[in-house]
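>> received
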Amino acid sequence: MAVQTDIEIARAARKKPIQEIGAGLGIPAEALIPYGHDKAKVDQGFIRGLEGRPDGKLILVTAINPTPAGEGKTTTTVGLGDGLNRIGRKAVICIREASLGPNFGMKGGAAGGGRAQVVPMEDMNLHFTGDFHAITAAHNLLAAMIDNHIYWGNALELDARRITWRRVMDMNDRALRDTVVNLGGVANGFPRQTGFDITVASEVMAILCLADDLEDLECRLGRIVIGYRRDKSPVYCRDLKAAGAMAVLLKDAMQPNLVQTIENNPAFVHGGPFANIAHGCNSVIATRTALKLADYVVTEAGFGADLGAEKFFDIKCRLAGLKPSAAVVVATVRALKMNGGVAREDLGREDVEALRRGCANLGRHIANVKGFGVPVVVAINHFTTDTEAEIEAVRAYAAGQGAEAFLCRHWAEGSAGIEDLAQKVVELAEAPSMFAPLYPDDMPLFEKMETVARRIYHAHDVIADHVIRDQLRTWEEAGYGALPVCMAKTQYSFTTDAAIRGAPEGHSIPIREVRLAAGAGFVVAICGEIRTMPGLPSQPAAELIHLDEEGRIEGLF
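>> returned
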């Protein structure tokens, strides 16, 4: 019998009306804004009424560095949420929305997989409730108002050479990385060089995911630095009087989206910054809402723990005052063998020695998470090609690092295949949280970048031109020195070279550029060759996505 695809499993799910899912959390029907029968937004007024309630336990799911072999972090997040509900705990899942870029590119969707999925899968991986389109529109409204301001006389004396606000779109398109706008003569404005980023790298996305409420959202939008004058003084979004209109476009997008898992457990899916080029976490408002409604909240951070978990701890938890109670590091036997030097086509063969070599990557992530004072457990996401010897080798290695490893079969079995991990997470979460960020607020910005590079990546040094260092000092003098840093770096390696797997030591981290996200509240360091507008692979997933003869979507994964 052929194995069902993710989309086939999702399509066969017996979903409950979204009002019933909300009722299970104590959300009345009038506080839900339905988008069809199986998804809804939660009203801001209801969320404000939750402020006096105690918080549940926050559990982070992170992973080793991603490989083409697959790790299954979102699948494990969903499976763990289902598993906690299965053992009698009231749990909610909080994950990010999917970007169209990777859906039609190489990575695929972001709704989990197998029997551990959030549904409706097709909607979630495509337009969903329109949040990303609203973010794209708000971002590009500001871009349009910048060029319009210059066209009509430039009263703010913006230096066209120092405009830092680019445009965005939610698609991988390398042709738009560097562009020239306003060509065509006097009627079209003053030509200047700019470019596009992908929507998930937009500061508007980060602001929506970090804002407390609509008032805070508009305030943060107003603080966006869009460029500089000839004397290098900053010009803000509020100077263009754009923040109000942007907030109007984002009003509905600011409300968290409620959906369900295949097992009819509640899930908030809201926001979607990537962790390689942005801060990699779902929205603060969704997480806080879930914490008020459940005993356990299972969330994830993008890519491996060196990026996603670090940013979750140092940016999201710091800025939102969150205290995670436990963390799960997801690994697969296949990915660990690939870290140990096994070629992708040979991963189906047992190779315990290569596996042990590759476990160094897992060990680095375990140590890094522990460095934040958060207890950690390892989830071995099961594949049918895994052998008992390989599984035992991972368990033994994890034990040597002071972390217990559990074999998890949630992809095939749903919550029944992850009960042991769920029990362990409850045990870890019951202990008092010793969480602390990696660096203090008052550390200079460049030293914060060095701290992340040395303690998380195990780099020897950070290379940055004097122009970058001078820029960081200028921002410190302007009052931005207390902000955390967001390292934009390849997700595939602890280095800036995507081909170097395992747990390398003593390398250098070159910083190519720094960007101030004053509205979001962090400083971005763009390292190595990472791009904030991805490109499509030689054979994009879009080639396989189509409608069948009955008008159903096929090829999404």
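>> The first strand starts at residue 32 and ends at 34.
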